[in-house]
Amino acid sequence: MRKAVVKTGAPAPDGALPELTTAAAAPGRPRFLVLGLLAITDGHETVVLQPSKPTSLLATLLLHPGAVVSADLLQRVVWGARPPAGGRSALHTCVLRLRRLFAKYGVADHAIEAVPGGYRLHADADSLDLLRFRELLRRAGASEDPESALHLARTALRLWKGPVLGNVHSDELHRDLVPRLTEERLLAIERVFDGELRLGRHREMVADAREAVRSDPGHEGLSALLIEALYRSGRRAEALAEYRRIHAHLTTELGVEPGPALRDLHGAVLRGEPTGGRAGLPTAGVPPPTAASSGLGRASPPAPGTLVLRALVNAGLLEEVPPGRYRVHDLLRLFVQAAGTSLPAAAPPDPADFPPSATG
């Protein structure tokens, strides 16, 4: 079985695959990497396995750590729909080749165990990056400290090096198993963005959230987080535009409507209501409490014109840009177009020219 050997800190030799930047593995202890190109590392040297039947077999075992993988499944992964005659003997030969590789790089001979009906590979969070990733996410979910939870989630996400198992050539594996890994990565990205929102970093995360949505335009969870970040940043029109985009994508490409969570978020943005997802965060579209409303003292009531303008903003018909000045919201134009008419070419005086004091 061919392999590319890349030493940490040294350029890759001619013909080798690029160096993998691995999470800090204990020097001298071998570790399997599946969240990128399939490889073995000891912290000093990384062995990137070349496409081969033993490589496909190893990838399948690593994606089922500690579980018995049936010989039938392994044969389908390695040889496709037409395994060779004597397929179990051929599997045994692949396992022997893997054990020889393991011996060369310090992996215990009993790491792959032959059991009735198939094989099992023993691994833990210190020997397999996938299990380390899952452990970090579990700890992030259990942490009561938002900063710690975000740090753990980011550390987990950094373990992904992509393309996932790009050196494993198996249609069955890429059809049935790799998509599940990809979904786990998306959930980790969601957790990171959710952590940013909980810490009030909605403005800082907008660019990264846009990039994530661009990479996976049909993922409702990522779009919801982008919409909320934009909304909390005072960019309501952009939040509504993102909802229209994901709605069009889902209905056109998949023939489905957005789920209830995304629809509820859209409704809150339209009405200018708190999104209600994370206590302690400022919410765009909802003005801070006044002295009167908070019971701290008396305040003069707002002018009637101000109340009207605020109601139109909360209804999504006007947009306040900058504070104290208003313009017709894109949503109103959409309503006019849906009614079969159009706004006049010569627009009436722009409401932005009239501050609230002029309408009272």
Can you walk through the features of this model?
With 360 residues, this protein is of the alpha+beta class. The chain is built from 14 helices and 9 strands. The chain has helices spanning 53-62, 71-79, 87-104, 129-142, 146-157, 171-176, 178-198, 202-215, 220-232, 236-254, 260-271, 291-294, 304-314, 330-338, and strands at residues 3-7, 31-33, 39-41, 45-49, 68-70, 112-115, 118-121, 318-320, 326-328. A 4-stranded antiparallel sheet has the order 1-4-3-2, with no helix packed on it. Helix 1 packs across helix 2 (71-79), helix 1 packs across helix 3 (87-104) and helix 8 (202-215) packs antiparallel against helix 9 (220-232). It starts with a strand and ends in a 22-residue tail after the last helix. Residues 6-26, 278-305 and 341-360 have low confidence and may be disordered.
Could you give the topology of this structure?
Elements: E1 3-7, E2 31-33, E3 39-41, E4 45-49, H1 53-62, E5 68-70, H2 71-79, H3 87-104, E6 112-115, E7 118-121, H4 129-142, H5 146-157, H6 171-176, H7 178-198, H8 202-215, H9 220-232, H10 236-254, H11 260-271, H12 291-294, H13 304-314, E8 318-320, E9 326-328, H14 330-338
Antiparallel strand pairs: 1-4, 2-3, 3-4, 5-7, 6-7, 8-9
